[in-house]
Every structure is written in C-alpha cells, then in structure tokens.
Amino acid sequence: MNQTKLTTLILMSLMLASSGAAVVMHPERQAQVQMEKLGLETLVPVRFGDWHVDESVVPVLPPPDVQEKVAKIYDETLARTYINSHGERIMLTIAYGGDQTGRLRVHRPESCYTAQGFSVQQLAVEQLHFGNYSVPAKRLMATMGERREPITYWIRVGGETVTGLMGQRLVQLKNGLLGQVPDGLLFRVSSLGTEPAAQYRVQDAFVGDLLAAVGQGPAEKLVGKSAVAPRSP
C-alpha cells in the first residue's frame, strides 16, 4: 500500500470515528430525522410547459422483492412518463427518504436497471445548468435487447447534490459531525433512443422546464441548496 492510499484510509477512519462520536455526544440530534414528506405528487405538476403526463408508458421499476425493500427505505416515490407536442417522452422517477444515515441510503439506478436484466454503461459525469441551478449529474446508457435507454440522474443528500458513492458518504459524514441526520432524494429521468446526445438534450429541456415551473423553493428540494447559483456570464 502506497503512502497516499494509507493517508486516505487514516483520514477516512478519523472521519468515521469523529462522526460516530458526534452522534453519541448529541443523541437528541440523532433522533431529529426529517419525517415530513415532500408531497411529490403535488410538488411535481402533471402538466407544465409543453409537457403533460402520458399514462401509456411506465418507467422501469424494481422487481417485487426489491420494491418491498424500497418501501421500507423511502418515504415517498414518484414514477411518471411525460410527453410533449413533438411526441417526445421522458420517464421521471423520484425517490425520497427522510433518513440518509448509514442505515438508510439512496439506491442508484445502476443497481435497479441491472436487477431488471439491463446492461448498464456509464457514459459521463457532467455539470448540468438549468437557469440559476448548477447540478452535477451522471449519464448512463441501459441496454437490453433492442431497447436503448439513456439515463440522467443525481442524488441529493441534505442540501448537497452528489453523483458518486464517495460524495454521498462524505456528505453523510459531514452531517454526522454536526450531529444531524440528512434526508435524501434520487432524481432520475430517462428516454428511449439510440442517440444518447439527442436524448440528453430532450431530458435537459424537460428538467429545465420542470424546475422553472415549480419555482425556487420546491426546486431546491429536488436539486439541493448547493445547486442554486447564478451561471457565469
């Protein structure tokens, strides 16, 4: 093991120990789990801009046994398919959990799609811009047979948005040091098509329209307060 890896392990161990100590020192904060639901059914409108809900297409959902586990992890889930006047469809899935400590954690689409028999390829991690929001997101391509499904997703933990497992853990640790229990949200959009770049443009347009339609307060619940920043001119 080289010196850099050893140093990293030591620092992570110290952070874990400090996080645990903070919770022990502040047991009353440990119980302050955010139990209030977001109200996803009303927070996300069924019609906005050029988009409205299309009941003919259902997003990919976990198998029944996984859905049972999901029900225990998340306080709310929302799965809808939207269509615009050009016939373009976007599948939207949002999952919210009030407790994102080590006991309950947001699950990533890679696992969900793989469990359904898809082959999942990571294409990129990008900083996406929607008006005054700047959101780090992960791009995937899920493939099964003739089906090609480009995917964009991000994870909000507390007030911060992350894409990787390390980022998620660091936010959890930081909240642990403060004796806080962060909530968490998975935001995922996908569509069907063999040209990922074209599909991502439609997905980004959909997300931009959605965030503009709900307003800053509700939008922060979806992207995190850390994402609210004016774009550079």
Describe the structure.
- It is a single chain.
- The longest helix is centred in the N-terminal third of the chain and has 23 residues.
- Helix 1 packs across helix 6.
- With 233 residues, this protein is of the alpha+beta class.
- Helices cover 38% and strands 29% of the residues.
- Strands 1, 2, 3, 4, 5, 6, 7, 8 and 9 form a 9-stranded antiparallel sheet that branches.
- The chain has one domain.
- The chain has 8 helices and 9 strands.
Number of domains: 1
Low-confidence runs of at least 5 consecutive residues:
1-35
Sum up the overall morphology in one term: globular
What fraction of the residues are assigned to beta strands by DSSP? 25-35%
Total DSSP E strands: 9
Please render the helix and strand layout as text.
Blueprint: H1 3-25, H2 27-30, H3 40-43, E1 47-48, E2 51-53, H4 64-73, E3 76-84, E4 89-97, H5 109-115, E5 119-130, E6 133-144, E7 147-157, E8 160-162, H6 165-177, E9 184-190, H7 196-214, H8 216-223
Antiparallel strand pairs: 1-2, 2-3, 3-4, 4-9, 5-6, 6-7, 7-8, 7-9
Helix pairs in contact: 1-6, 7-8
